């Protein structure tokens, strides 16, 4: 039976439309990579570049890598290049100046950004005002403080604890956050004080802590000071437990950490990444350190978001705000402001050799 010419034309148009739409959905991700590739932060920028390129290669995605110079001028220039290159999304950015200069340009073009290292709270807190489609794969500036208070409020609910700080802005804010959060949990430290840092011994402080009856101490300060306090407490026969923030990630050099020392910090991404991804880094002779794995995961997120946006007929920014993304470093979800829904900071305990996740002990 011969079909009418009009019907043939209609079917042909439908098939052509399906082919075109299928081609559009199958188009590879075109991802912009913004990183400081010159200046003092070049090493960190290279980590972003290598991680993003490796992920893009695994996904058959295209990359447009631009040096944002960690400056407002560099950020604006990078954004202009990304718009010209018609990228689907941008990953990277470590500096507040660069991303804040780039976002108005990228917003105007409808290009979402997944930042890896900008911790400035206002970047996402101002979303209702700015409308910037920015998503933060790293922690906020207040994430460490929030986690320290919340975690220790649970761990030390039945413990006589003290809170001390070294007088620096970092140490004071961290200690104050612990004091405030534990107070909200109806807990009160038996002792609070500001100590003199970088001393060869802290025997006097340990004496005051012991007199106050402290069994555990949170220290807002440097890792070496924490190690010295624990050493001196042991010399005086005290089993006092010490805790600190992510400053403890650095080795205490001449004084080792005492077994049982607690640290509130981000996980090492290589410890949580899946084996398949780590094997890719090994084959590519790239160290999975610093921002390399988050950059790899950010490209994975962008690729998933682009495919979902094509399938659902929605902007990528809408998709990024509305689902759980399976990545090489675990599931990722962004809240309405673009921050991670789960605080990435965790509790770790020193086992005599290294800090291990508390939940695994």
> Which residue ranges are poorly predicted, with pLDDT under 50 across at least 5 consecutive positions?
1-25
Q: How confident is the prediction overall: mean pLDDT?
A: 92
Classify the secondary structure makeup into a structural class: alpha/beta
Percent of residues in beta strands? 15-25%
Helix segment tally? 14
Main beta sheet: 7 strands, mixed
User: SSE string, helix = H, strand = E?
Assistant: HEHEHEHEHHEHEHEHEHEEHHHHEEEE
Rg, nearest Å: 25 Å
**Outline:** elongated
Strand segment count: 14
Percent of residues in helices: 40-55%
Q: Quaternary state, please?
A: single chain
Placed side by side, the strands forming the largest sheet appear as 7-6-8-9-10-13-14
End-to-end separation in angstroms reads: 75 Å
Description:
- With 361 residues, the protein is α/β, with parallel strands linked by helices.
- The chain is built from 14 helices and 14 strands.
- The strands form three sheets. Strands 7-6-8-9-10-13-14 form a seven-stranded mixed β-sheet, sandwiched between helices. A five-stranded parallel β-sheet has the order 2-1-3-4-5, with helices on both faces. Strands 11-12 form a two-stranded antiparallel sheet.
- The longest helix is centred in the N-terminal third of the chain and has 22 residues, at 5-26.
- Residues 1-25 have low confidence and may be disordered.
């Amino acid at each position: 039976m011969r079909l009418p010419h009009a019907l043939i034309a209609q079917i042909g148009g439908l098939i052509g439309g399906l082919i075109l739409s299928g081609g559009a959905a199958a188009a590879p991700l075109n991802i912009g990579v913004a990183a400081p590739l010159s200046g003092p932060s070049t090493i960190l920028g290279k980590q972003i570049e290598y991680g993003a390129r490796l992920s893009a290669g695994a996904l058959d995605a295209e990359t447009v890598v631009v040096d944002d110079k960690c400056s407002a001028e560099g950020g604006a220039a990078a954004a202009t290049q990304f718009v010209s290159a018609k990228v689907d999304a941008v990953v990277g950015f470590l500096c507040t100046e660069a991303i804040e200069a780039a976002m108005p340009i990228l917003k105007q073009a409808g290009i979402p950004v997944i930042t890896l290292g900008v911790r400035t709270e206002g970047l996402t807190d101002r979303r209702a005002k700015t409308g910037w489609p920015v998503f933060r794969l790293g922690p906020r500036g207040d994430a460490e403080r929030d986690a320290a208070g919340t975690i220790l409020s649970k761990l030390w609910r039945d413990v006589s604890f003290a809170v001390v700080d070294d007088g620096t802005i970092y140490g004071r804010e961290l200690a104050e956050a612990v004091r405030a959060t534990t107070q909200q949990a109806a807990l009160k430290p038996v002792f609070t004080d500001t100590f003199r840092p970088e001393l060869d011994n802290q025997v006097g402080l340990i004496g005051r802590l012991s007199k106050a009856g402290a069994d555990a101490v949170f220290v807002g300060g440097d890792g070496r000071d924490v190690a010295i306090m624990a050493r001196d407490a042991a010399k005086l026969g005290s089993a006092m437990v010490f805790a600190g923030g992510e400053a403890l990630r650095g080795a205490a050099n001449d004084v080792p950490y005492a077994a049982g020392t607690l640290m509130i910090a981000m996980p090492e991404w290589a410890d949580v990444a899946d084996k398949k991804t780590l094997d890719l880094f090994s084959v590519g002779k790239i160290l999975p350190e610093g921002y390399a794995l988050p950059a790899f995961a950010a490209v994975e997120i962008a690729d998933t978001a682009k495919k979902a946006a094509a399938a659902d007929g929605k902007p990528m920014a809408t998709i990024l705000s509305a689902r759980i993304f399976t990545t090489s470093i675990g599931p990722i979800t962004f809240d309405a402001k673009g921050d991670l829904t789960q605080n990435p900071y965790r509790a770790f305990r020193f086992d005599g050799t290294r800090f291990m996740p508390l939940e695994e002990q």
